[in-house]
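User: Fold both of these, please.

Assistant: Here is the first one.
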Amino acid sequence: MPKRDTNYMDGQRDRILNAAVRVFSKTGFHRSTMRAVAKLAKISAGTLYIHFRDKASLFRGVVKRQFDAYPQLATATLAEWQDTILAYFAEPMSAQDRQLAQMMMHLSVESMSNTSVRRLFDELSQSSEWMFEASIARDPRFERLSQLRQQSLARKIGAVWSGFETYYLLNRKSRSSAVGLELRDACAAIINGELKSP
């Protein structure tokens, strides 16, 4: 088989991830098939398996691509996260954003009755908590907090972010600066409560 250049492979991977979002958002994780993703991406199933070994790795790829869209978050403090939140909600919402929210809602619901989906959901939750935890550790406001309290704060902020994202994207079908401010204020209330407690 001839070697493909990096741009071609990246483009193919992007088409696969776009198709996966559409399939997962429509049928959920459990009922989705690799064959349906391949068909929508207009590639063979074998080509899909070159990029992703199974549905779980495909799902992780979708989520990773979302995180990669905001590379500044890898080194951000929590205050910088909050600025990013405001900018995120000020952006117009695309059809793919709505599909991503629907996909995450399916995963959340399915995780309640399917243990393999639950493990995947927990893995994704832990990785977002880790990102919040790292941003808290870099933020000088939280130096006096123990590692356990920093982890607790990361879980709380992660839950608020996830709740806002899902609720507003699914129910309001749009983003707005006002929503970003509400989310920032909700996070600020949690942070202030944590900083005031002994």
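And the second sequence with its predicted structure:
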Amino acid sequence: SPTVNEWLLWAAENKVDERIINFIEQNPDCLESKTGEDTGLEKSADRRSWQRVSELISNVTEFDKILEKAVAGIVGIPAALKFSNFLKSNYGLNVKEIISNFAKHKTKLGKSPLHELSLLNDGMFRLVETEDDQEVVKKYVANIELYIKWLSETKRTEALAHWTTLYDSATYPKTKVAVLTYSPYIFQHIVEFINNIKL
């Protein structure tokens, strides 16, 4: 079965609701329930159930008690409660906002811990990888360049190393091409970053 990251990429490509993608990214244990035998009486989360939840909430902005119960009927009570609490807590950094207009939203990054920046990195790669409009991709890459500069200026080397690892992986080929096409700076910076690593 696919890894959580593979499912997240699939979910982005198949337009699964962004709130679910963000939730599973931060709570990978909720993608599939490990409860064991299914008695049919109590629902549990699996990959297909999250896709059904996406269809249910796609046009909904407010997650109320009725919707929470409906989601519990699809993914089970524990996952539904965790998802509801996640939504109520404003679920962290919004990747699309940040790579659409980094200058406007960079203050949100402030003192974000490495974990949040790593999730942001993953989200950036997924968004670029699944975007077909090249003008949008070009805008994303321009903002990612500003983000990479910010990581360097603020000495967030662990987050930059994580970003570089994602770039170097085979998971995001369209993103690599986009970076090479639209931002020679990022590619040059990655090469310098790797060369300056002291073992």
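The CA atoms of residues 8 and 100 lie 20 Å apart.
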